[in-house]
Amino acid sequence: MDLRQSIANQTDVSLGLALHVAQNEAKGSNLVFSPLSIHVVLSLVAAGSKGPTRDQLLSFLKSKSTDDLNSLSSQLVSLVFADGGPAGGPRLSFANGVWVDQSHSLKHSFKQVVDDVYKAALNQVDFQTKAVEATNEVNSWAEKETNGLIKELLPSGSVDGSTRLIFANAVYFKGAWNAKFNASETKDHDFHLLNGSSSQVPFMTSKKKQLVRAFDGFKVLTLPYKQGEDKRRFSMYFFLPDAKDGLPALMEKVSSESGFVDQHLPYQEVEVGDFLIPKFKFSFGFEASKVLKGLGLVLPFSGEGLTEMVDSPVGRNLHVSSIFHKSFIEVNEEGTEAAAASAGVVKLRALLPMDKIDFVADHPFLFLIREDMTGVVLFVGQVLNPLVD
């Protein structure tokens, strides 16, 4: 398996997903989610499926085989998601959990994948008579794994006596900027909303050189996080359309051109003129299966093909009823704290070095958090109004 190509494919899937989530679930609101988190859950489902269901999952995830998916997941867990906090880098946690009804046991081959590849905590629960307790158990797990940021991952009533399995993934990220912003320079300015009105929002600023590039119709800014003692380099990318209402068109562009992000990365620091980045903090949750069905991934939700998960004839009747996802992000002068997983991208246009570039993010923009050595996108989102939690 070619890791770089697999990651590039995963990024394309992530950005396609981001567009659909923005259009169908976010509908005019701020958005943050981790396509990577959803990717991992779907990879785990694929490992327990066969026939047309497995084929459809592989096609959707742009992967040749479940072995490739498992290999990608295990490499990401070991390469990208080790906690960098002790070594001075970003704090990271990436956890998988599987809950199975006590009346079933996992097939040996599937249990091996759950244990060895996904390093998932396996829990036996009583869905049939204690669905509420099981829901609370999953929610407590997610809250603990995301440092208290993600509460109520599973909404009330989402688990009942017919539930047999739950797969969950949690991602937590906290990084400090390489060059922190001076809080005393943070001032209120107008942020222009898509509906034509504006609101006063605290903006951070800096006179330092920045990694910025201008492209046709948009600009890209890279804000690197402090690196630890390993090779990983995490950055946040801001994709800012030139037009105040240009975000929807930019999202279409980013998600439809394969390899877009890698082709649109700033590669040198330049002098900046006006430089303003809003502070923001919000959470976002959605039920992913609706979006996935809208993108053509229907078989895992229809009740056939998930035959490789449990040792029981019941396996023939299993289906995925829903996939819940929740994320949180906070961007301030110190850095970024985010919980969940996802990604996005930009083309190079040569600029004369003496040109100063303005980067004023005073209208809706796209952002992503990415590990630059591998190209893995952990989070993707849009800011439509920085004041809305």
UniProtKB/TrEMBL annotation:
GO terms for molecular function: serine-type endopeptidase inhibitor activity. Coiled coil: none annotated. It comes from the Eukaryota. GO terms for cellular component: extracellular space. The keyword Signal does not apply. Keywords: Protease inhibitor, Serine protease inhibitor. Residues 15-386 form the Serpin domain. It holds the Pfam family Serpin. InterPro entries: Serpin_CS, Serpin_dom, Serpin_fam, Serpin_sf, Serpin_sf_1, Serpin_sf_2. The keyword Ion transport does not apply. SMART domains: SERPIN. Belongs to the serpin family. This is Serpin-ZX like.
